[in-house]
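Practice record 12: protein with pyridoxal-5'-phosphate.
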Amino acid sequence: MQSHVWHPYTQMSQWNSFDVIVKGRGMWLYDRKGRRLLDGVASMWCNVWGHSRAEIVRSMISQTKKLQHSSLFNLTNDKAEALAEKLVSICPGMHRVFYSDDGSTAMEASAKMALQYWQNMGERKKTKFIVLENGYHGDTIGAMSLGYVPAYFSSYKSVIFPTIKVPSPRKYRIPKGLTYEDYYNSCLEKLEAALSRNDNIAALVMESGAQLAGGVTIYPKGYQRAASRLCKKHGTLFVLDEIATGLGRLGSMVEYEAQESRPDIASFGKMLTAGYIPLAATLASKRVYDAFLSPFEEMKHFFHGHTFTGNPLACAAAIENLNLYERHKIISMVRKNSVILSKRINEIAALDMVGDVRYKGMLMGIEMVSDKTRKTPIPHKANVPLRVFKEAKKHGIYLRTLGSIIMLVPPLAIPEQDLGFLIDGTISTIENVSKQIIP
Ligand SMILES: Cc1ncc(COP(=O)(O)O)c(C=O)c1O
């Protein structure tokens, strides 16, 4: 069958055909021939309960029968209201919720909110962003500009707006001659220097708790708290992206709270609807929100919105999902699962081509290298992503890599037995791919 679909981040010339997934049940995806694969990446890091969870499906069916979409322009809807109330009650220091459709659009909204905040406050020159190297906030042009992973974005450089980049506190491959402590301190010093040298900074924007797509950097304890304090000290906004790391992924409901940090703006997406339907939310503190209130003619209101902002069907799914979080104590489930993952670390780290294993909560990045001691990256021509995908399939699991980093990001509520299956399959996958690359 001739396909007309163009797949994301995919070299289409290498793929003659794709497995056609037609059904999802629990942790498993089924293709049209009835073969099944364990969803090791939570369908791009968003699935919480597994597929077809009855309560969420029921909430969506029931909402579909009542109201499928009604706009938040001049009206509101009961589900958008109820979800906003819930989110504000979960997220300390937050006051209002601005809805959008996915992580990228949530980050566009965050950036525009931060910029307009300062314009509304009369601080017209505060128009620049400080961001972390190798941050990732999505693929729209604003979100790319806030992030910038060179391997992904270099073709679009001409339209990416300039930002001030400071190093992120990674532990693997730190500059030669530095201890980790030196390097870590230099990261904070460079951040403070950037904040104090420039009086035109609108915000520091970063992922909360860990950087994911730019290479899986788990922040050391205290880093995010220090960054948050520096923003307060230098009078700039602190904007966090919890799209991939919040709502339990790293083992806490609200990662910024676990990190003892206080953002002015924070965005959530992915797991918000348990991965069932697109929805994202950008939360703002009262201080930020109040700056948008004025007589109409002053034109201080937020000039941003989408057709599907606050879609009631998506909000209904999110409400049911968050109810399930409470009822089934998802955070303790994640913490238990995380212990299971951690017990297998030594076994994974000992594999020949594994250079580093970085993990927290229900997230693990396994970096494959061609030389462990030299930490030598595997060349692109070895095509690790395709090899890993094909090999993992033989072991009944669906894996996706970031370059040579294998991502284990399963549904948060994965049962112990399935998690064991996933880890066993990943280990066999790494062993076999290693033999293919260095026979
Ligand atoms: C931290 C972070 N922010 C933003 C995004 C973009 O989200 P989306 O793909 O839903 O646009 C992602 C996606 O992986 C992400 O990991």
